């Protein structure tokens, strides 16, 4: 009986955790790394494999799995269904929407033996919309359709830095919503916003939801989910009077609020999530439609990203001291 019980015990002596030991009395020098990057390397959470590429060691992988469980639970509560799209996307799909040309510097491309070009996908708007179009017109009773995946993504960063904050390979949750009308799509958008807030509330680190830039993704509505941090590469303008938060790129006047003319507070932030209301930008190109009133109506879409490895790194950055690595309790490697 004892052997059966101890067979499932996690033994510290067996754990693969290569810790960097500093000589007694030495001080930690400024090596240009962020606090989270250095701590996760020193404590055996991650290991650099190449520039911008990291291995999640056993403790890091446990943290990721616990975070995935939290995300899965909240998204299942709103009826989202989990799928797994191929990591390689035919480049012709990206050419069809025009994003291939605009994003060439940031994407990895490979060519197979038949000289067909593929993209190591940083995101999957084209792939998911093409999937729905190929399945055939949706029926109204199938909507809203919320599909998501949690998978590795790739971006050819010019200067990978800050460890998992800006790496060439990262783990992201991407979700795509399909609705009959823009009004219905907005309802889906709001339900996913609530799910995101539940996830971040559960983790317990204060965050800001700011109006975001639609950028290359397109669409009409966008929000960014941010942690406040001095190493953050984004800037959010906040008004303490009316409560508005927006990305600084959206405002010509960085000093006063356009709503109430009060002074704006400027904060450096780490973007951990981004949501977009896309309308029919992608569905009209791929003819992803719904049968309605004897017509085929282009589906109204939304897309929703949450950077899981970035969130892990950000939580370490915010909670830790220079000497001690600290986790939110719910994703610490060996807590219930």
UniProtKB/TrEMBL annotation:
- One Pfam family from the UniProt entry? tRNA-synt_2b
The kind of enzyme this is, by top-level EC class, is: ligase
Entry's Gene Ontology BP terms:
prolyl-tRNA aminoacylation
Q: What protein does this entry describe? A: Probable proline--tRNA ligase, mitochondrial
Keyword Transmembrane attached: no
The chain's coiled-coil residues are none
Q: Which InterPro entries match?
A: aa-tRNA-synt_IIb, aa-tRNA-synth_II, aa-tRNA-synth_II/BPL/LPL, Pro-tRNA-ligase_IIa, Pro-tRNA_synthetase, ProRS_core_prok
Which CDD domains does the annotation name? ProRS_core_prok (cd00779)
State the reactions this protein catalyses: tRNA(Pro) + L-proline + ATP = L-prolyl-tRNA(Pro) + AMP + diphosphate
Q: What are the Aminoacyl-transfer RNA synthetases class-II family profile domain coordinates in residue numbering?
A: 31-328
**Molecular function in Gene Ontology:** ATP binding; proline-tRNA ligase activity
Instruction: Output the SUPFAM superfamilies linked to this UniProt entry.
Output: Class II aaRS and biotin synthetases (SSF55681)
Q: What is its EC number?
A: 6.1.1.15
Keywords from UniProt, A to Z, are:
Aminoacyl-tRNA synthetase, ATP-binding, Ligase, Nucleotide-binding, Protein biosynthesis
- Protein source organism: Microctonus hyperodae (Parasitoid wasp)
Query: Under the cellular component aspect of Gene Ontology, which terms does the record hold?
Result: mitochondrion
